Each structure stands twice: as structure tokens, then as C-alpha cells.
Amino acid sequence: MTTLTETSVAGNDDRRDNENNNGHKLMVALDVDGTLVDHDGHMSPGVRESAQAVVAAGHEVMIATGRSLNATLPIIEKIGIERGYAVCCNGGVTLRLHPGLNGGYEVIHKATFDPGPALRALRERLPSAKYALEDADGNFLSTERFQDPSFGVEAVGVDFHTMLEATAVRVVVFSTENTPEEFNEAIEHIGLAGVTYSVGWTAWLDIAAAGVTKASALENLRGRLGIEQHLTVAIGDGRNDIEMLTWAGRGVAMGQAPEEVIAAADEVTHSVFDDGAAHVLRSLL
């Protein structure tokens, strides 16, 4: 594994892998929170400009995020992607981007699932947690008026029984009374089946359909684009990025990523607070 040291600076060091690309178009998958933006949602000028430069160079740059569609679109606009693809909801939703489309995008794939069994099991083990669900129409349903910027829309408060009957693209579970370790313990005890899940930085759980990850959606896009595996690059920081970093020909973990995320990557860059993504993006130019 390669580690970008704190003494490395933008410039020649950042361009070290460029010769290996031999002028080929790359497929570049970028996580958002903790990668392109910090935990306050701020994107630095250096990250924005380097991402825009890679887009302008003609590479297939795509957002791959746990965020829902409406929370992803502003990031796509900010880094200047007008044509191409994006992955939302941890692989649950795939977009095609083109200025000729209504709103500049269309949903080309959506993976739905029955959230009932997982919700019932989690509610029994984590009764004080808050629950939210994105349905097949892009609406968010939530208990206890649970809201989060990653939803992109205001969640509608419903009772738990109503959530059980919905068809889901994404389920989110959050608790202010539990730690991530307690979440992991609860999930191991339950033995969630028929879904894919990842635990976040806090006591936050994202659930998608079985087999659906950022990596699964990106692999479908790679096949559609005809890009060779070794020409894929991914940058991320969260546990929901592990499959993506393993999938990529060059998987880069952010400096502040948890140990298991770093272990899945080929290299480690600076943290999000030190523009780690910008260092990697400049190496592609």
C-alpha cells in the first residue's frame, strides 16, 4: 500500500501515476461526504478545481455516494459533470447525466427491496433508534421526524407500520444512544439477511437491496462504457466504500478513514481536511 506523506505537495508528486494511464480514458468514482466535502458539507476550492480539471480532461468522472438523488445533484453541478453517470443510495440508484434530459438527468436503474424483515429485527434490538426509508418514488418516510441532509428532501413522518409496508431503495437507521460498536453488535446478533448494509462513522446504518453496493453499480457502468478494470480509480473514506475501493484498479482511502477502509485500499491520501482528494485527482492529469 502506498501512503501519501504529509511532505508531499501538489505538482510532480501528484502526477506520479499519469504515465501508467498512457493517455487512456479513466473511470473515476468519487465518494462525497468525507472525500469531496468535509463533515460540514464544505468543498474546498482545491478539491473543486482539481475535480473540474479531471472532468474537463475527458475522463469518466462519476459521483458514487450514499446520498440520495436530490442531495447528489448539487455536487455533480459543483464539479462540472454535465454528461456521464452517477451512483446514489450506495448503488441503489444510477443516473445518466446529459444536458438534453429534463433536469439534466434520468434514472436508468433502481434496486428496490422489502424492508420489513430488516426493520422488524432492528426495531426489536434497537427500539430507541430513528428510522427513515426512501421509497421507489424518491419520497422519504421517517419515524420521529428524522431528517438528514443526505436525504435531499424533507422526510414525511409516518408510523412504523406504514414503513413496513413500503418498497424501499434505501433504509437509514440512526441512534443518539448507541455507538457504532453497539450497532455492529446488534447487527451481528440479528444476522440481517436479504439486504446489504454498512455502518457509518456514528451510530448510523445504511441498508440497500441484497448484493447492491457502490461497487456493483459501478461495475455495471464499467461494462456499459467498455473501460478496462485497470483504468478505474476510486476515492472514499467510509465503510460503505470498502467494496468500491477493492473493486477499483486504484483504490484510494482518505487519510481519516477507519482501519478497515484503509486495509481495503491500494493507497492512502491526506485527510479530507487536507484536500486529500485533490492530491489524487491531480495525479490523473
- Give the % helix: 25-40%
- In percent, how much strand structure appears in the residues? 15-25%
Strands of the widest sheet, in order across it, are 1-15-14-13-2-3
Reported for the largest beta sheet, the result is: 6 strands, parallel
Structural class: alpha/beta
Mean pLDDT: 88
Number of helices in the DSSP assignment? 10
Flag low-confidence runs.
5-20
Number of strands: 15
Shape: globular
Q: Rg to the nearest angstrom? A: 19 Å
What is the H/E string? EHEHEHEEEHEEEHEHEEHEHEHEH
Q: How many angstroms does the end-to-end distance come to?
A: 22 Å
Task: From the structure above, extract its key features.
six-stranded parallel sheet; 10 helices; single chain; alpha/beta; 285 residues
Description:
Helices cover 29% and strands 23% of the residues. It is built from ten helices and 15 strands. Mean pLDDT is 88; it is low at 5-20. It has a six-stranded parallel beta sheet. By secondary structure, it is of the alpha/beta class. It has helices at residues 18-21, 45-56, 69-78, 116-125, 160-164, 180-190, 214-225, 242-247, 259-264, 276-282, and strands spanning 2-3, 27-30, 60-63, 84-88, 93-97, 105-110, 130-135, 140-142, 156-157, 168-174, 195-199, 204-209, 232-236, 250-253, 267-268. The longest helix is centred in the first third of the chain and has 12 residues, at 45-56.
Question: What's this, in brief?
Answer:
This protein has 285 residues and is α/β, with parallel strands linked by helices. The chain has helices at 18-21, 45-56, 69-78, 116-125, 160-164, 180-190, 214-225, 242-247, 259-264, 276-282; strands at residues 2-3, 27-30, 60-63, 84-88, 93-97, 105-110, 130-135, 140-142, 156-157, 168-174, 195-199, 204-209, 232-236, 250-253, 267-268. It has ten helices and 15 strands.
